[in-house]
């Protein structure tokens, strides 16, 4: 009986083991099949790399206006506007703006220099200086030597048409204006009868000289100051006009000639003032005033 029971249990154990083996084989087969078909649904490693590259290219193209990736099947990507949507003509508008700016600059630069100089000749000294501060193109035009030469002849004299200033006509114009302003202060001190200001205007040197309209000559700083003291004490205030002011400026010396009219019906006095440049300012070193002898001075004609 015990041997029969043992023989009956052995087939059952074998059958159970067979079933488990079959199930294990079936599950293993399913696992292999799932691994085999997964790349088809998700793509292979090469396809994934290509997809990532395409995504990066799309991101790069989004940063550039209207770029197309060559060698790929991507469509042209257009840069979005800040307020939404895409801008199909961003590049065209940018190119148009650049062209307009370039055209405006080229039109100014292509003007004939003579026309530019003629146009600037209608400006006065302050206006020409303000124009030079607007932009680089106007600064270049306003610093043109011919423009300052024309302005010099308009404001001062044609006598120096043939000279060539060492530092250019702009610097020469500024130096001439400075000496003309100092010469104007000299006559203002006479009107105000200010001996203190007159003493500061003259150079304190023994070679300075002054010839008054009376014909008296005074030499040396002290003698010249004494002559002006006497003139301011004795003479009453007089009205006079200064005309035909002409200046010549060198490095450290300048002289100014003019006509002085005390009364409109009388003959003018010819006045010459000579200045020297010391320690950053102009000093008067010679003054000469004399009655005009009746000769008429010929006008200066440009080019002669």
TrEMBL record:
Q: Where is the F-box domain?
A: 105-151
CDD domains with a match to the protein in the record: F-box_FBXL4
What keywords does the record list, in alphabetical order?
A: Membrane, Transmembrane, Transmembrane helix
Q: Where is the signal peptide?
A: none
Please indicate if the UniProt record lists Membrane as a keyword. Answer: yes
Q: Where are the transmembrane segments?
A: 12-32
SUPFAM superfamilies registered for this protein in UniProt: F-box domain (SSF81383), NTF2-like (SSF54427)
Q: What is this protein called?
A: PREDICTED: F-box
Recorded source organism is Prunus dulcis
């Amino acid at each position: 009986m015990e041997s029969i029971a043992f023989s009956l249990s052995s087939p059952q154990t074998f059958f159970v083991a067979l079933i488990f083996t079959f199930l294990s084989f079936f599950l293993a087969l399913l696992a292999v099949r799932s691994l085999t078909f997964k790349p088809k649904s998700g793509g292979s490693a090469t396809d994934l790399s290509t997809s990532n590259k395409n995504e990066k290219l799309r991101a790069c193209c989004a940063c550039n206006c209207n770029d197309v990736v060559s060698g790929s099947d991507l469509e042209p990507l257009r840069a979005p506007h800040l307020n939404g949507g895409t801008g199909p003509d961003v590049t065209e508008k940018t190119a148009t703006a650049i062209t307009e700016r370039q055209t405006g600059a080229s039109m100014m630069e292509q003007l004939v220099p003579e026309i530019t100089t003629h146009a600037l000749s209608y400006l006065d000294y302050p206006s020409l200086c303000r124009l030079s501060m607007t932009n680089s193109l106007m600064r270049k035009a306003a610093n043109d030597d011919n423009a300052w030469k024309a302005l010099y002849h308009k404001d001062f004299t044609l006598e120096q048409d043939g000279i060539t200033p060492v530092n250019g006509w702009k610097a020469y114009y500024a130096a001439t204006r400075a000496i003309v302003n100092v010469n104007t202060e000299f006559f203002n001190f006479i009107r105000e009868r200010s001996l203190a200001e007159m003493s500061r205007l003259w150079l304190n040197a023994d070679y300075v000289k002054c010839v008054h309209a009376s014909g008296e000559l005074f030499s040396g700083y002290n003698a010249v100051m004494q002559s002006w003291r006497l003139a301011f004490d004795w003479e009453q205030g007089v009205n006079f006009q200064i005309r035909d002011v002409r200046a010549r400026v060198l490095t450290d010396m300048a002289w100014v000639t003019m006509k002085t009219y005390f009364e409109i019906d009388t003959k003018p006095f010819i006045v010459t003032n000579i200045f020297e440049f010391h320690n950053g300012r102009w000093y008067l070193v010679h003054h000469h005033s004399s009655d005009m002898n009746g000769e008429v001075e010929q006008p200066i004609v440009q080019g002669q």
